[in-house]
């Protein structure tokens, strides 16, 4: 190969080594056997070096990702994907890290893995990576954030975890995920909303536009009263923004009505209830009696949701 041609090839390969694709691999990779050569790939933006190869592994050796930001998997969508896998197989391999010879942990592709199990597959194609816990967390969160089907609360929790556990500043995080710092800040502000409103946002009862308007109200009681009005009256984002503006300026009777509502818990217990709900991704209720006794209720929506909560408990 001529010297100039070789230099161009090396330059091209270096450019392809940057960004998330260097961590997660390419879907166009045609290596399919366990004897495929290993490649050491360095990500310039994160300083993460991982070793990758494409392999086919037993589906029973794979376990879910404890860092998975997705809180809910729709059963109907999984069934449709399982039907597609039965007919056409796995088009895009999952990505895993190897823990032992018979234990792999998913970095990305949990939905494909679940659907493959549902389809009755015994083996699944996977990119096998070498990564420690911090690298695993960053790869999993960033890869999932860049998908379009995460709800705003799942994205916000992912941003919060990247900042807290990977020690990133908002501006650094914005660079990693390709978002402006203001966009990252807007998502993080959603976590200040009470659990009832966060739950409505996760389920699509309200949009992010509604939530961004509600977060500007300082009083939790007013936020909840306003949320009820928005849902019952099916207010648009524009009408919600106008109502919030009126409340802030003291022009709407909703404010006085909400402030008169009795707080069921004192400040410390209310804050604890909100923090726990955000941490577990579900609407936790705390009941506290005058004698100091009480209970914590952690609801779950499905067996998968219960397993997710149990995984969170195990990691702490």
UniProtKB/TrEMBL annotation:
Keywords for the protein's UniProt record, in alphabetical order: Chromosome partition, DNA-binding
Annotated GO CC locations: chromosome
InterPro entries named in the record: Chromosome_partition/occlusion, HTH_ParB/Spo0J, ParB/RepB/Spo0J, ParB/Sulfiredoxin_sf, ParB_dimer_C, ParB_N
Biased amino acid composition, Polar residues: 26-43
The keyword DNA-binding is annotated on this UniProt entry: yes
Example GO biological process: chromosome segregation
Pfam families (alphabetical): HTH_ParB, ParB_C, ParB_N
Disordered: annotated segments: 21-43
Domain ParB-like N-terminal: 55-145
GO molecular-function term, one example from the UniProt record: DNA binding
Keyword GTP-binding: no
Membership in a protein family: Belongs to the ParB family.
Protein name: ParB/RepB/Spo0J family partition protein
Native organism: Flammeovirga aprica JL-4
Taxonomic placement: Bacteria, Pseudomonadati, Bacteroidota, Cytophagia, Cytophagales
